[in-house]
Specification:
The chain has 142 residues and is α+β, with helices and mostly antiparallel strands. It has a domain at 9-40 and 53-116: D-Ala-D-Ala carboxypeptidase, C-terminal domain (Peptidoglycan synthesis regulatory factor (PBP3), Domain 2). Helices cover 26% and strands 35% of the residues. The protein contains three helices and eight strands; from the N terminus they run αββββαββββα. The strands form two sheets. A six-stranded mixed β-sheet has the order 5-7-8-3-2-6, with no helix packed on it. The chain has a two-stranded antiparallel ribbon with strand order 1-4. Strand 7 and strand 8 form a beta hairpin. The longest helix is centred in the first third of the chain and has 18 residues, at 9-26. The protein starts with 8 loop residues before the first helix and ends in a 10-residue tail after the last helix. The relative contact order is 0.17. The model is unreliable at 136-142 (pLDDT under 50).
Length: 142
């Protein structure tokens, strides 16, 4: 650390200690998500399973001041439901991180493969959707 405008070694030492204390008190490393951790869950349309986990590829850790952390907002955006088939690692959503002075977008990926229902199962699910409404389309036909 380099300090200018101090008249003695004692003054420089005291000021550097004060600045370091301020930095360690005001800033902290926040661990939001680890790599491959589930951030959210998306519904699947005409898939063999009703939903798929949305995961982040890299760890999401940030060093922020208390004020920056207080004003931080995160949101996840995707088109719901997601149509099958889905391939593991496929980009399905976007995590948006908004702070006071900046914003960042991070891709969210499918945690696993989701196969499409067979022809007759898709037809049955589509009929259920027409008759009973939106929830029937995401139900697995057995």
């Amino acid at each position: 650390m380099v300090l200018n405008g101090m008249t003695s070694m004692k003054q420089r030492s005291a000021e550097s200690r004060r600045l370091m204390d301020l930095t360690f008190r005001e800033f902290k490393k926040y661990r939001f998500f680890e790599a491959n951790e589930t951030v959210d869950v998306a519904n699947v349309w005409l898939g063999k399973v009703p939903n798929v986990d949305l995961v982040i590829a890299q760890p999401l850790h940030r060093v922020l001041s208390r004020d920056e952390r207080r004003h931080l907002k995160m949101s996840v955006n995707w088109i719901d439901p997601v149509s099958a088939p889905i391939i593991k690692g496929q980009k399905l959503a976007v995590l948006t991180i908004e702070g006071k002075s900046n914003s960042e977008k991070i891709d969210l990926l499918a945690a696993n493969d989701v196969d499409e229902l067979g022809v007759f199962e898709r037809l049955g699910a589509a009929l259920k959707y027409l008759i009973f409404g939106a929830d029937a389309g995401t139900v697995v036909a057995n």
